[in-house]
Fold this protein.
Amino acid sequence: MKAAIALALFSLGSIPTVLVFATPAHAHGEAPRKRKVSSTERAMLDVVAKRTAAYNKHDIEAFAATYDKDVRVYEYPDKFLGKGVERMKAIFGPQFAAGEGRIVVHRQLVLENTVVSDETVTAYGKSEHNIGVYTIRDGKIVEVR
């Protein structure tokens, strides 16, 4: 049986983007096919993995080290929340000091220098399903949506 395919057109910053979503063949009883992850894709995923690990350890310095000093933070899709790694520390420092916060990553997609992460975030007794969009340059997260 063939995989089912759907297309989505949206804008990633100023770049019109087409994403292809497919129902995996194994959902229809076929064996899953594995694709090799390129070294560039692995580097992007590693930055987000370091961020997630630091978040889960409540390590504000390691968490902040994954961000560019001028990181821009948005509530998806375009509500600006703040700028700068110091702002990130101010937001997450008290939460981490209280031992709060856990992220579980369900799946991720890499598109050029962007990682789209399907996550469940739990803090202060509440869990929320989120899609995080992380733009990465020079090994640092420069934008979060």
Notes: Residues 1-30 form one domain.
